[in-house]
Amino acid sequence: MTQAFTISGADRPSRWLVTCDHASNRVPGWVAGGDLGIAAVDMARHIAWDVGAAGLARELAQRLDAPAILSDFSRLVIDPNRAEDDPTLIMRLYDGTVIPANRAITPDQRTQRIARLYRPYHAAYAALAAARPDRAICAIHSFTPRLRGRDRRPWQVGVLYSHRDERLALPLIQACRDAGWVTGDNQPYSGHLDGDSIDRHALSQRRPNVLIELRNDLIADAEGQRAWADRLAPVLDRVLAGSGL
């Protein structure tokens, strides 16, 4: 069976479930021969995955004593943080880079990517989320300091959320700012997207949730990932405990 995800600490007792939708830049061999047709330097940057997010998610899950699920395929193969009918599910152009293997993707190829990668990841995610009735979800992502042709982004941390559930996000934003971190409130982009992972696994079930974006230059190496896990874990636990949820 094609590997679509990895799980660590499935039996850890925390209420938290740590997730990482864009953990990997792997292209399975059965997808265009394992090569989407773009340069290795592009496969290493943020268009293919969330740089540093996987290491941060694993470190954070350990500190929270929580299970973690991480995707094991590039967002350019198929983006698990989109609804199946979203036109950006399989990107043809991203931050100025054309994705040749996606430009002429056939319906059968799209169906295969959904069946072998997207749906297995979400099935495993759903099972972990449902493993305890008081589950809270912490989604980990990262963002690039600058998109091509755009201004530099000033934030260290972004907390993203939907207007449908601000219960944990707003106190988390305040806690991050109190810690002295330059924190974006639904920045560098809005946290609401119909059919995305939080919508699917948290909002629909009224599960407490937060989505944290770290600027990827801060977590590009293991030292940075450990440091930010050390900083975030106690804040997350304190915010959840204080929420009364």
Question: What's the layout of helices and strands?
Answer:
Elements: E1 5-8, E2 16-20, H1 40-43, H2 53-64, E3 68-71, E4 93-94, E5 97-98, H3 100-103, H4 107-129, E6 136-143, E7 157-160, H5 169-178, E8 183-185, H6 197-201, E9 209-215, H7 222-243
Parallel strand pairs: 2-3, 2-6, 6-9, 7-8
Antiparallel strand pairs: 1-3, 4-5, 7-9
Helix pairs in contact: 2-7, 5-7
Summary tags:
245 residues, alpha/beta, 7-stranded mixed β-sheet, two-stranded antiparallel sheet, 33% helix, 16% strand
How would you describe what is shown here?
The protein has 245 residues and is of the alpha/beta class. It has helices at residues 40-43, 53-64, 100-103, 107-129, 169-178, 197-201, 222-243, and strands at 5-8, 16-20, 68-71, 93-94, 97-98, 136-143, 157-160, 183-185, 209-215. The strands form two sheets. Strands 1-3-2-6-9-7-8 form a seven-stranded mixed sheet, with helices on both faces. A hairpin with a 2-residue loop joins strand 4 and strand 5 (97-98). Helix 2 (53-64) crosses helix 7 (222-243) and helix 5 crosses helix 7 (222-243). It is globular, with a radius of gyration of 17 Å.
Radius of gyration: 17 Å
- How far the N terminus sits from the C terminus, by CA atoms, comes to 38 Å
Specify the helix fraction band: 25-40%
Give the integer mean of the pLDDT values: 95
Taken from the alpha-carbon principal axes, the silhouette is globular
- In which order are the strands of the major sheet placed? 1-3-2-6-9-7-8
Task: Please report which band the strand proportion falls in: under 5%, 5-15%, 15-25%, 25-35%, 35-45% or over 45%.
Answer: 15-25%
Look at the helices and sheets and give the structural class.
Answer: alpha/beta
The biggest beta sheet reads: 7 strands, mixed
Q: How many β-strand runs? A: 9
Q: What series of H and E elements makes up the topology? A: EEHHEEEHHEEHEHEH
Low-confidence stretches: none
What is the overall number of helices?
Answer: 7
